[in-house]
Amino acid sequence: MAKEPTLIAVSRPVEVGEDDGWVTITPERVRELEPRIEVSGAGPSARRIYASLAKRLKYWSASELAKPGASSAEEEDDDRIDFHGAGVFVTAQGVRAVDASFTVDCPDGTRTRVYGSVFTYLRGNFHASLACGYDPAEHGNKEQWVTEAYTLACGDGS
Q1: What are the residues whose beta carbons fall under 8 Å from the beta carbon of 150, sequence distance 6 or more?
Q2: What gap in Å lies between CA 50 and CA 18, rounded to an integer?
Q3: Rounded Cα distance, 9 and 148, in Å
Q4: Which of 52, 66, 122, 133 fits a disulfide with 96 by CB distance 3.0 to 4.6 angstroms?
Q5: Which SS3 state, helix, strand or coil, does residue 48 take?
Q6: E-strand stretches of 30-112
Q7: Residue 152, pLDDT above cutoff 90
Q8: What is the pLDDT of residue 1?
Q9: 92 forms bridges with which residues in the sheet?
Q10: How far apart are the two ends of the chain, measured CA to CA in Å?
Q11: C-beta separation of 121 from 95 below 8 A
């Protein structure tokens, strides 16, 4: 089972002055995640699959997991930040995506085995604000979604 932070939106670089105070930045969508369940045959209900997945994840409840029909685009919002200094900044938003496979022996008397997979994400996003010219990977932040945001928005020579 993979549960990875995934970049969903990043802003264009915004130049901020020393005295600008709070700045509102609107990130642009990088990718859209859409939850789905795939099964090899008649199997457990989506509700049971999500309940089982939440139990396995331990810290999440089924209600926190996005269901089929949802979209990570619903998690995007404007960032309002006081950068405390001048420079060129970007903001990024991500969600924790979960991709898991499962096997179920159905107790319907036939002992049919059902194989499946579920892809979802934890509802609610997390944010990062980054200064172009200050590569987060070179300063201790090795998270892939943050590095991807920095590279996309700031490039490699900012």
Answers
A1: 90, 92, 130, 132, 135, 136, 137
A2: 47
A3: 11
A4: 122
A5: helix
A6: 36-39, 79-82, 87-105
A7: yes
A8: 64
A9: 10, 128
A10: 36
A11: yes
**HEC profile of 32-82:** CCCCEEEECCCCCCHHHHHHHHHHHHCCCCHHHECCCCCCHHHHCCCEEEE
Residues found in the chain: 158
121: its two tokens: 């994400």
* Tens digit of each residue's pLDDT (9 = 90 or more) over 26-37: 999 999 999 998
The total of other beta-carbon atoms located within 10 Å of residue 101's CB is 11
Name the DSSP class of 152: H
CA 22 to chain centre: 25
> Residues 56-95: pLDDT tens digits?
888 677 888 899 999 999 988 888 888 777 889 999 999 9
Angle, CA 117 vertex, CA 3 and CA 55 arms, to 5°: 55
According to the model, what pLDDT value does residue 7 have?
Answer: 94
Distance between CA atoms of 97 and 142, rounded to whole angstroms? 18
Q: In whole angstroms, how far apart are CA 150 and each of 13, 22, 109, 130, 136? A: 10, 21, 54, 7, 8
pLDDT digits (tens, 9 = 90+) for 94-113: 998 988 888 877 666 666 77
